[in-house]
Amino acid sequence: MVLQYNLITTITENLGIGKDNELPFDLPTIVEYCETFCAQTKDKTKKNLMIFGRKTWDSLKDDEKPLFGLINFVLTSRDDLDVSKYPDVYVFHSWKDMNDKLINPEFKKKYETIWIGGGTELYDYAQKSEHFFRAYIMRLKKFYESDVFFPKLVDNVRRIDDERLPKGIQFHDGVEWEFEAWENTNLPKN
Ligand SMILES: NC(=O)c1ccc[n+]([C@@H]2O[C@H](COP(=O)([O-])OP(=O)(O)OC[C@H]3O[C@@H](n4cnc5c(N)ncnc54)[C@H](OP(=O)(O)O)[C@@H]3O)[C@@H](O)[C@H]2O)c1
User: Fold this and answer.
1) d(CA 74, ligand 1 centre) in Å
2) Which CDD domains match (predicted)?
3) Which residues make Cβ contacts (< 8 Å) with residue 65, sequence separation at least 6?
4) How much distance in Å is there from the Cα of 16 to the middle of ligand 1?
C-alpha cells in the first residue's frame, strides 16, 4: 500500500464532532492526549502529517496552526486561501493533488504517518478510499449538542489492539472515554 490514510477523531456519544464550527466539547486533557498521540513518530527526523478540510482550518486559532505541530494539508475549492505565514502548511484543491504530493519521493522523506483529521466529508472519503488503513476513534461517553457528525463507519473494518492505546474506559476532564482502533479488512496482501 503506497499511501495509508489513518482517520483520527474524537466523537461524542451522539456521534458529534463539531458545533458552530468548533469542537462541541471543552476537554483540554483529552485534546492534548490526541495531539500527543498524533505527533508520535518512530523516526525522530520525521513529522506526521494531518489532512483536513477548510472549515476545520478556519476553526483553528492562529496559535494552533499548524495543528498539533504536524505538517498540515488543507483541502479547499477556493483559490484565495493564504497559508504562507504558517510553516509546514500546504493547500490543495483535490485528493489527487494531495496524493501526488504525498508520493513525491523527496516529500516522502519528511513524514511518517498520514492522519485524516476531518471533517465529515474527508472522513467519509478517506474510509472508502483504496488508501484507507485505520480509524482511531476517541469515543466520549457523553452527549454533546452537535451540528457536524462522524459518518457511519464502513463495514469492512475489524477492531484491533494497538499497544499504544490505553486499554478500557478512561476518565479525564470529568468525562469517560475510550480509545478504539479499527483496521480495514480489505487491505492489499502486500
Ligand atoms: N471532533 C473531532 O475530532 C473533529 C475533527 C475535525 C473537525 N472537527 C469539527 O468539525 C467541524 C468542521 O467539519 P466540517 O465537516 O463542517 O468541514 P471540513 O471538512 O473541515 O471542511 C469542509 C470543506 O473542506 C473543503 N473540501 C472538502 N472536500 C473537498 C474536496 N474533495 N475538494 C476540495 N475541497 C474540499 C471544502 O472547502 P471550501 O468550502 O473552502 O471549498 C469544504 O467546504 C468543526 O466544527 C470542527 O471543530 C472535529
Assistant:
1) 9
2) DHFR
3) 57, 72, 83, 86, 89
4) 14
Compute the C-alpha angle 69/75/77, nearest 5°: 150
pLDDT in tens, 39-50: 999 999 999 999
What are the sequence ranges of the domains in the chain? 5-184
In whole angstroms, what is the distance from residue 172 CA to residue 139 CA? 12
pTM of the model as a whole: 0.97
Task: Answer yes or no: is the C-beta of 73 below 6 A from any ligand 1 atom.
Answer: no
Q: What is the pLDDT of residues 74-123, one digit of tens each?
A: 999 999 999 999 999 999 999 999 999 999 999 999 999 999 999 999 99
Which protein residue's CA is at the shortest distance from atom 32 of ligand 1?
Answer: 94
CATH class of 5-184: alpha beta
> How far apart are the C-alpha atoms of 130 and 121, rounded to whole Å?
16
| Any atom of ligand 1 within 6 Å of the Cβ of 59 | yes
